[in-house]
Specification:
It contains ten helices and no strands. It is mainly α. Helix 5 packs across helix 6, helix 5 runs parallel beside helix 9 and helix 8 crosses helix 9.
């Protein structure tokens, strides 16, 4: 059974599907979640706190998907293609992930902002959200490092700097496919070509 916090986050995401963030009202989010407005304020501290929780949740969900993609392949060398495919899917289907990875935020989305003072929220999940979300470069770096770690065991003699550069190229290529769509299924073969070409070089 979802917690009140989960229900509130789901309600806020549902509201964002039809309204710009500026038009999302806390009272409506609480009502849709079936809880009191006071519960919402207890969990998030206010609308800015709710925004930070939504964006932090999107970042954590995307990174969890990266980890699943890397574990889903039998051969670690297929990890970059799986990560690229997940990244394309996540950016196309989740506007918050798209904002996190590109830095492009519009009026429809809650722009992430750190609180002016360190948070004193009694809710651990909110303290985590209030600590801030990664910049696009930081998030890309986290994904690159996960890919490198997954590949490093398979290629112990591989130049670590070249491996990191290859993984970053793969991610930037995936983002280009996410933002300028191509035919379905094109991403993974192109990623494999890039990885194999750089490995042979």
């Amino acid at each position: 059974m979802p917690t009140a916090r989960d229900a509130l986050l789901d309600a806020a995401l549902s509201a964002l599907a039809t309204l710009p963030w500026s038009a999302v009202r806390m009272v409506d989010v609480a009502s849709a979640a079936g809880v009191s407005r006071q519960t919402l304020y207890n969990e998030f501290g206010g609308k800015d706190g709710l925004a930070r929780a939504l964006v932090r949740g999107a970042a954590d969900g995307y990174l969890a998907g990266v980890d699943r993609a890397l574990r889903s392949v039998a051969d670690p060398r297929d990890g970059p293609a799986a990560t690229a495919a997940w990244t394309v899917r996540a950016v196309r289907t989740n506007a918050l992930v798209r904002g996190l990875l590109t830095g492009c935020w519009g009026e429809r989305l809650p722009r992430p902002a750190r609180p002016a003072a360190p948070t004193s929220s009694p809710v651990p999940a909110q303290r985590w959200a209030d600590a801030g979300t990664p910049t696009p470069a930081e998030l890309l770096g986290q994904v690159r490092d996960r890919m490198v770690a997954a590949l490093a065991g398979d290629r112990p003699s591989h130049d670590p700097e070249q491996l990191a550069a290859t993984c970053e190229i793969v991610l930037r290529l995936a983002l280009s496919y996410a933002l300028v769509p191509a035919s379905p299924g094109e991403t993974a073969p192109l990623v494999c070509t890039v990885v194999e070409g750089r490995s042979a070089g």
